Amino acid sequence: MMTRLTDDMVKDIIASLGSTDRMLVSLTGMNTLELACDAVGITPDMIDLRGIRVGVVPVTSGLGVIRKFSESVAEIVRNLGMESAVTEASDVAGLAEALSAGCEIVFMADDVQFIAVNTKNGRHSDNSFSTAAGYVSALKGAAGGLADRKVLVLGAGRVGGTAAELMVSMHAEVTVYDTDRKKSEDLSRRVGIKIADDLGDALLSHDLVFNASPAPISSDNIREGSVFSSPGIPFPFDDTGIKKTKAIIHDPLDIGAAVMAVQSASFSRLKP
Ligand code: 2YJ
User: Fold this and answer.
1) N or C, which terminus of the chain has less Cβ within 10 Å?
2) Prediction pTM value
3) Is any atom of ligand 1 closer than 6 Å to the C-beta of 184?
4) Does any ligand 1 atom lie closer than 6 A to the CB of residue 37?
């Protein structure tokens, strides 16, 4: 089940971009740009983002436009040094507007998928992959490396599955928990990881957790001093739970969208 952002989750993103950036620096040692580059396997000196024109197209299909969603994406992209604007028109007319304006990258999201298309070569980056990659990099930074470390992945959906796969490739020892055991089994078979049967036991035996689940996490199950990389929305912790953790990396949009921007730019703008 995909969780949709709400007006309420989005309303403060623009005002809090600076504090998200500082949170990332203090918890992971990387700012948003460095983190997004790390997630894509490059460093900031390998790409020049300045002057890249980006369009964000509001999409009305399904449950419709989320207030300030497009503006927030445009601001996240702008903070990375790119030029961005929300199109006046929505949907197909908005896409035509962005193409006519010469946008090199176009962001669009409906209720199922959120992508950034590179119009120079037709390649696109996807928010599920980018969110997974960005939060894996964040966890790696916060943990001081993931090789040979035990990591629990909560949620075997698209983000959790991609994160598990990426962390296996980094030689982490990954265990997955999902309330739907069949989804855990499919993922376990696909990427070769262990399955946890009891959520409480799994959480209490892991210092590092990648949370890609929409479920709340009870403070009773949180191991003292554990680190959570937690893209899952809504925010799953209560105050008692927060106090038990060492660090929680979480934001509603910035990390995923920043990785999308850098990845889609990398399709056409890597320095030779
Ligand atoms: O243009 C708009 O304002 C809306 N159509 C944005 C919809 C945003 N979509 C979501 O929040 C969905 N959950 C899809 C996100 C993909 C998650 N990887």
Assistant:
1) C
2) 0.97
3) no
4) no
